[in-house]
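Before the break, one more example. Copy the sequence into your notebook; we will annotate it together after we see the structure.
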Amino acid sequence: MPQETGAAAPFAELPPSKLLWALEVPRALASLAPLIAARRRLMAMPRGDGRPVLILPGLLNSDVSTLVLRRYLTALGYRAEGWRLGRNFGRKAIGGDGERLFERIRGMRDESGQRVTLIGVSLGGIMARFAAHRVTDAVREVITISAPYVGHPRATNVWRVFELVSGEKVDAPRVTTQRNEILAPLPVPATAIWSQSDGLVNGTICRVEGEPGCRTIEIRSSHLWVQMRAEVLEAVAGILSSDSGRAEA
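Here is what the structure looks like once it is written out:
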């Protein structure tokens, strides 16, 4: 299992180095072989209890990007589903105030009779935290994967892409207000999985040191395809199998 850690660096203002950025694609491709090799170990993780799990994709991505994670959790015995909101174009995907996402979460809760665990990759993790604040009664737990919810969006190499596809400026008052809400400690248990060697977002803005109710797990990974890394799959399975005392169904 990846090592759990409570350490965190101060807020950072700079995006990852150009070298890490340039290595994103080669590092992502290099993660495929270890994933295949880890299959037996991954399938030996504790079996799931059938709880509903909703997985939110990162910026520009759709449910296709979370297929490996969803199939893995389904194979373990969880009810893992995609968000079914198309590509993640920010508020264009989830609705002006998140209403489409909230409706999806409530629908899963009502259908299953259980609160929903949210797993969000990058921007999807930011949205998962937002939803946990707004529809707490429908959310069991939040797991973020390389989600830069702590610092300023310009501490990433993708903030201009976010502005282009979402139609929002990262410094707009509405965005700033929501960013502060998302940063606030969550009313449900949470885990932040992050990488110091991330080439797209500064790893130090993917978790808060000492955030109440939130544990952190550090990995070594690129940003691209982080949700398909064997150690990330193992970490997620471990979190889900050990949270019975942390969150009620």
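The domain at 4-42+50-241 is CATH 3.40.50.1820 (Rossmann fold). Strands lie at 4-5, 52-56, 79-82, 116-121, 139-145, 190-195, 214-219. Try to locate both features in your own notes.
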